[in-house]
Amino acid sequence: MSLLGLPRVINAGAAQSRLGGSTLSRRVLEAMARASTEYVDIEALHDEVGRRLAEATGNESAWVSAGSAAGVMVAVAATIAGPDPERAAALPRSSERPDVAVWSGHLGGQLAGADAWHPNDYLNSIAAGGGAVRVVEHPRELDRADAAFVWFPGMFPHEDEDGMLRLFADAARQLGIPVVVDAADQVPPRSRLTDYTRVLGASLAVFSGGKGIGGPTSSGLVVGTAELVAACRTNSGTEHGVGRTAKIGREELLGLLAAVEEFLERDEDDEYAERLAVVNEWSTAFVAHRLAVYADPSGHCGQLVPRLLVRVPSGLRDCRDDVIGRLWDRSPRVAVLPAPGARIALSPQLLAPDEPPEVARAVLESIAAHRSGCSDCSADSA
User: Fold this and answer.
1) H helices within 235-377, ranges in order?
2) Which long-range contacts (CB under 8 A, 24 or more apart) does 193-200 make?
3) Closest by alpha carbon to 186, among 209, 202, 169?
4) Separation CA 232–CA 62 (nearest Å)
5) How far apart are alpha carbons 381 and 157 in whole angstroms?
6) Of 226, 221, 184, 186, which Cα lies nearest the Cα of 203?
7) Predicted confidence (pLDDT) per residue in 333-355, tens digit
8) CA 347, CA 55: separation in Å to the nearest integer?
9) What is the pTM (predicted TM-score) of this model?
10) What CA–CA distances, in Å, run from 106 to 135, 161, 165, 292?
11) Do 63 and 222 contact (CB within 8 A), yes or no?
């Protein structure tokens, strides 16, 4: 069944906002439906949901944002205005626009899941929160006047990002600078919900509710120190700071709470094994057709989600992109991601039980259709 007559999409790519995030479980849907029928004091609901999320994730405090980008925006505002309602209401119109430090390696690069150079457009969340981006190369360049240091893991491939974050966080702590981590697509594993704040030195970590956690697309989970989470609340709806434009309804509050609780109850090892079995089945099918494949143990942003990379016969990006276009033009559409080396990335993360064979068939048919008109992809060039 399609929505409003639009083409249905089989999502073999990833949990992406442009495709609607993740699939909501019955438990999450029921929590949201129940929330929609009862009126409560929203601030009191925030208090209770935040308390439960903090307890469930092992963090000092927690808050629900309207997605991870909004979470970063409000977090930046919180580091600037703190819990002062008047200062919060003045942002971002205030003439005060303090520096927010960002590592140079996160300004742009080969964006995960895009196989092309892209700027880091999520820096806009810093500006929207009232900050001015200041680029630093090394932890020693942090300045006591910086309102915050913001870290973007998994967006652009870098070696030992955790180790680098720890160095920056140590330097920031000595200067009294809060560290905000935009960890939007960094779960699973669930240990990430505490790694950033309990191990790596972050003051706040922001996760997308609508990706690996499996919650509402327009929700985010912010965890960290009680002081900064309280300041986030002051700078968000229902108050009149920058976060008023990204307020959260009771449906998202209870939906995310249910999603986090369910996410923490799942057996990560079993879930990974089930997804790996799909990857292995795909691999067998494609190798039988003389296609080169690679089983990647992690997802496009480094999450604990296995995927299969399938190389087009010619090894040319233009050929790969044509195959991706053919997959999208099918009925139903099949969404995949590009990967370096002229490869197509297939993820089982969001597929229904009956969809993996359909994805394999679609990929084989699309490659065959491309080959028929491409001299670079002749039948014996695999």
Assistant:
1) 250-265, 268-287, 317-328, 356-372
2) 193/57, 193/58, 193/59, 193/221, 193/223, 194/57, 194/58, 194/59, 194/223, 195/162, 196/165, 197/59, 197/60, 197/223, 197/224, 197/225, 198/58, 198/59, 200/162, 200/165, 200/166, 200/169
3) 209
4) 10
5) 30
6) 226
7) 999 999 998 999 999 999 999 99
8) 31
9) 0.94
10) 9, 11, 12, 32
11) yes
Longest dimension (CA), the chain: 70
Pick from 185, 237, 207, 202: which is nearest to 68 by CA? 207
**Alpha-carbon distances of 148 from 96, 245, 248, rounded to whole Å:** 14, 22, 24
Nearest residue to 166 via CA among 214, 129, 198, 134: 198
Adjacent-strand bridge partners of 11:
335
Neighbours of 303 (CB within 10 A): 23
Question: pLDDT of 182-234, one tens digit each?
Answer: 999 999 999 999 999 999 999 999 999 999 999 999 999 999 999 999 999 99
Quote the DSSP letter at residue 145.
T
**Paired tokens of 144:** 């006591």
Rg (C-alpha) for the chain, rounded Å, is: 22
Judged by DSSP in three states, 294 sits in strand
Helix (H) or strand (E) holding 86: helix 85-90
Cβ proximity of 156 and 112 under 8 Å? yes
